Amino acid sequence: MMQEIARDAESIFRAAVEAVQAPRSLAEAGIAEVVEGCAGRVFVIGAGKAAMAMAGVISDLIGHRITEGLVVVPHGYPAHYPDEMPLPSPVEVMTGGHPTPDHHSVQAAERCLALAEKAGTDDLVLVLLSGGGSALWTSPASGLTLSDVQQVTDKLLTSGATIHEINTVRKHLSRIKGGQLAAASAPATLRAYAISDVIGNDLSVIASGPTVPDESTFAEAREELQTYACFDSVEGRIGERIEQGIAGAIPETPSKGSSVFDRSKTVCVASNDDAVRGAAQRAQALGYTVQVLSEAVEGEARQAGAKLGKRLALIATDQPVCILSGGETTVTVTGEGIGGRNQELVLGAVNEIGECAGYVFLLSAGTDGIDGPTDDAGGWVDSRTAAACRARGLSVQGALRENDSNALLRSLGQLVTTGPTHTNVMDVQVGVRLPD
User: Which domains does the chain show, CATH number per domain?
Assistant: First the structure.
């Protein structure tokens, strides 16, 4: 019975991922109609974990109209491209560094900027955005180097900062983020399609908002760096740029009302809500009574896991219940181990569900198929995990203290592994509560 629940939970998670794949997400975006209204050339550019799949759909729809195109995905993604997905040709595919940008990320950003700048008044620029785009499109601002951007990115990614806070900094160190791609495309028509990897689907945060107005400021970027103890430790060039921006010597990123957005429109075509709905449909088909949590799962991963575990343990039911939620947590790295936010989340639930009279199961995984610097999407725990750890001499608290969740879950055979999924709408949690 317990193995059956684990299989059900993984099936439910995979249904969530399927619901936000590019073919389904772009089906009703009206792209063909947009292209039909273009009298000039059509350029396709994009960045993110879903960019190759999105470009495949675009090429399938309007490939004969594409003048030139280039998208960038993380290293290794083309090797995992699904056979059933349409190929992106004639759009070229590059790979770049993620989550830390590399020189390939810079090359991709520079080439995409050049394509955008090539577009004229009668032309159309189609932009494909998804999670990971911030790292994959890295064009350091004047006076900065790739090393500067890498250093501050690494510090922020392990600091516990949210994606909103990280991207506030990124925008002010870049030539492409924070509405600056729209500025490069003007006066061409720009249409951007985004698969959202942020809570609330804020278009200014997805891939650091390259095609929409940016209301963040240099002063806020400095505040984020100071909050997370990064400002004094980064190289002087970043500090100098931010101080110059605060003083008005460097213009802020384009904000609402700027003319660069007059012919620019960005829409969200898929989100975490769509993934959770897909999961709910599969859970219902499998015979579970489904409850979807209304609030997004966020905050420190282990604390969010404890909260979810307690909620599951307290449910009174006379039938199998599946609790679904989504969102994205953070991890403040203090140890030397290997893990990810989803793996830490489920370990955070172990103590809460270990003493439950009935059976409780909790899976959490990233819809992109990647959790932290591991090859796994996430992991799962259940009411037996605490006892299994004691029997094997494993310490849940020790694993959390050292940020070493991957090793513990691997020892138990409780990891979720999918490989790159070519989409990304944050994380999904699948909880199951059986009657006492």
Answer: 2-13+273-433 (3.40.1480.10), 21-139+174-216+253-270 (3.40.50.10180)
- E strands within 141-288? 189-195, 264-270
Q: How far apart are CA 135 and CA 386, in angstroms?
A: 38
- Retrieve residue 8's tokens: 């059900």
**Cα separation of 406 and 394, whole Å?**
12
Contact 66, 59 (CB under 8 A): yes
User: How many helices (H) and strands (E) in the chain?
Assistant: 18, 12
Phi and psi angles of residue 188, each rounded to the nearest 5 degrees, phi first: -65, 160
Q: What's 71's DSSP letter? A: E
Cβ neighbours for 64, distance < 8 A, ≥ 6 positions apart: none
Convert the pLDDT of each residue in 365-385 to its tens digit: 999 999 999 999 999 999 999
Span 235-275, pLDDT tens digits: 589 989 999 999 999 999 999 999 999 999 999 999 999 99
User: What is the strand order of the sheet 92-96 is part of?
Assistant: 92-96, 66-74, 42-47, 124-129, 189-195, 264-270
pTM over 0.90? The answer is yes
Is the backbone peptide bond immediately before 213 cis, with ω within 30 degrees of 0?
A: no
How many whole angstroms from its chain centre is CA 16?
A: 15
Nearest by Cα to 178 from 187, 169, 186: 169
Region 391-395: mean pLDDT is: 97
d(CA 96, CA 78): 11
Q: Encoding tokens for residue 235?
A: 């190289």
